[in-house]
Inverse folding.
């Protein structure tokens, strides 16, 4: 098998191909997307921190000067939302946004959410156990982060059913060569979500609460504030990044444990292993397989020259299985202590929501270990077609 992100068999198990890439072609050009694939941990880690690359390039040049086609006009509503958040911008805009958002999204604020996260997780899992199991993804993994983020943002309960479809539709644009239908769906979802958040933010400015939107609307630093578009872009990013990662670590993680019954038994026998187990599950079957960056100046990686104007595809899933960094990398080890995985990225774009994701995962996995100690797989799951954001369609279990 070759690197083929549209092949369901490759999506289901890309790791043998990654191992071959690391051995034989750690820096290779992938013609169908015009990207350079970067397979080794050391290179991926270095490039995430290298300021000669960027998530965007419009801060230093135009589409035409960079040799790229401008995005079609119909995509404008999508990019207006996305480029108002911090993920797809570079310094100095990124520096300013991250500083402002960090004033509201503090470690203390995130840790204060733990009791609420625990209560939400336990309520979902109590209901799940009472009915004898079902689809772990749709009934536990998905509603947990959506409910947490909705409560954080102050989204009324009656509107929360809108969030998951918006997130899924927006994230479709991040797959490789998305179809025109997927693009239009993402644009519509981004526009609808932006309109909803603008209305909510205006209400919170008039009548502030103790939610994150109220905090973001009021946060200031030396007279600097988030614009309305920046507040919206930040909230969209928090939902999409926070939700998709937690859902897929949960689904992929339990499927990994079911495929490694010895490690599952080990974790069930010793719940103190949970913190290292969660990090290992993020490493072993990475939810975000690829992170793309633009080359802003000519660079050289492993003796290969990569010119300005192209995109590198950093293979997180491959880097997290690199034998140069992880002893016996294909073995799942819930007690793995030395685990420098890069599932949350590195450098200035390191995931701001990583502490919240870890809390959600700890409370979700912990509650399932306690309340469903004999949970079993009912049917072998099927992977979603997406490769970059990689997860299962469902995970049917009995308790």
């Amino acid at each position: 098998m070759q690197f083929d992100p549209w092949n369901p068999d490759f999506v289901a198990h890309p790791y043998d191909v990654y191992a071959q890439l690391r051995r034989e072609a750690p820096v290779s050009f992938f013609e169908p997307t015009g990207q350079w694939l970067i397979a080794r941990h050391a290179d991926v880690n270095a490039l995430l921190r290298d300021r000669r690359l960027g998530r965007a390039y419009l801060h230093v040049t135009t589409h035409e000067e960079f040799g790229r086609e401008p995005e079609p006009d119909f995509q404008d509503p999508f990019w207006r939302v996305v480029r108002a958040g911090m993920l797809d911008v570079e310094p100095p805009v990124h520096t300013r946004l991250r500083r402002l958002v960090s004033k509201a999204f503090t470690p203390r604020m995130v840790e204060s959410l733990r009791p609420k996260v625990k209560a939400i997780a336990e309520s979902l899992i109590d209901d799940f156990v009472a009915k004898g199991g079902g689809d772990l993804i749709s009934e536990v993994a998905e509603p947990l982060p959506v409910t947490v983020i909705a409560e954080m943002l102050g989204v009324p309960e009656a509107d929360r059913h809108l969030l998951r479809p918006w997130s899924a539709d927006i994230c479709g644009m991040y797959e490789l060569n998305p179809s025109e239908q997927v693009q239009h769906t993402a644009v519509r979802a981004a526009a609808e979500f932006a309109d909803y958040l603008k209305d909510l933010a205006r209400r919170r400015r008039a009548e502030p609460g103790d939610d994150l939107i109220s905090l973001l609307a009021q946060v200031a630093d030396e007279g600097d504030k988030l614009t309305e578009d920046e507040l919206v872009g930040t909230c969209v990013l928090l939902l999409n990044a926070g939700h998709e990662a937690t859902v897929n670590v949960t689904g992929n993680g339990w499927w990994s444990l079911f495929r490694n019954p010895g490690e599952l038994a080990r974790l069930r026998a010793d719940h103190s292993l949970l913190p290292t187990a969660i990090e290992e599950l993020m490493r072993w079957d990475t939810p975000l397989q690829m992170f793309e960056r633009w080359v802003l100046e000519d660079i050289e990686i492993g003796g290969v020259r990569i010119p300005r104007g192209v995109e590198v595809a950093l293979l997180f899933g491959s880097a997290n299985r690199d034998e140069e960094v992880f002893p016996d990398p294909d073995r799942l080890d819930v007690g793995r202590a030395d685990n420098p995985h890069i599932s949350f990225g590195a450098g200035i774009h390191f995931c701001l929501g990583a502490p919240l994701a870890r809390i959600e995962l700890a409370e979700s996995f912990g509650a399932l270990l306690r309340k469903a100690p004999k949970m079993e797989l009912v049917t072998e799951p099927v992977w979603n077609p997406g490769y970059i954001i990689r997860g299962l369609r469902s995970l049917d279990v009995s308790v």
